[in-house]
Specification:
The protein is an alpha/beta fold and 147 residues long. 43% of the residues lie in helices and 16% in strands. The protein has six helices and five strands; from the N terminus they run E-H-E-H-E-H-E-H-E-H-H. Helix 1 (12-24) crosses helix 5, helix 2 (42-55) packs across helix 3 (69-75) and helix 4 runs parallel beside helix 5 (113-125). The radius of gyration is 14 Å and the shape is globular. The chain binds D-ribose. D-ribose (RB5) is lined by residues 8, 10, 42, 65-67, 69-70.
Length: 147
């Protein structure tokens, strides 16, 4: 698959580890930074990653910050983007099976790196179940005139 990955300064090391793992698994990965400990604003990276997924340049995105929460809030402003901040394996699996999440958001200040890699594996390997969940996922986009 084609991935795009980004982080803020709080999560560079974990972002690099996730990127390298995805490449080892044979995926194509566009790393949009950041690449140093210099303080940056997480929404700047979230919007780049979400924009690539929204526009189709990448099939899936990964965003990493201190908690994953700010990244998810920003990424979900983009139509067609379903970003899930996950800190446990069950949520990561459900985010794929039921929500068809296309962006995984992780917290470098929450997760041990090995566990973050496990959540990434689940995000990559778990298929969307479709059926009734397809109808619900279609309703995630706000109805015309409602926002
Ligand atoms: C940066 O200090 C921190 O606010 C950011 O990494 C993230 O946790 C935001 O949601």
């Amino acid at each position: 698959m084609k991935f795009v990955i980004g982080s803020d300064h709080a999560a560079v090391a974990l972002k690099n580890r996730l990127r390298d793992q995805l490449r080892e698994w044979g995926h194509e990965v566009n790393d949009v930074g950041t690449n140093s400990s210099e303080s940056v604003d997480y929404p700047d990276y979230a919007h780049v990653v979400a924009g690539e997924v929204q526009g189709g340049a990448a099939e899936r995105g990964v965003l990493v910050c201190g908690t994953g929460v700010g990244m998810a809030i920003a990424a979900n402003r983009h139509r067609g983007v379903r970003a899930a901040a996950c800190s446990d394996a069950f949520s990561a699996r459900m985010a794929r099976q039921h929500n068809d999440a296309n962006v995984l958001c992780l917290g470098a200040r929450i997760l041990a790196p090995e566990y973050a890699l496990e959540l990434l594996r689940i995000f990559v390997d778990t298929p969307f179940e479709g059926a009734r969940h397809g109808r619900r996922v279609a309703k995630l986009e706000p109805p015309e005139g409602r926002c």
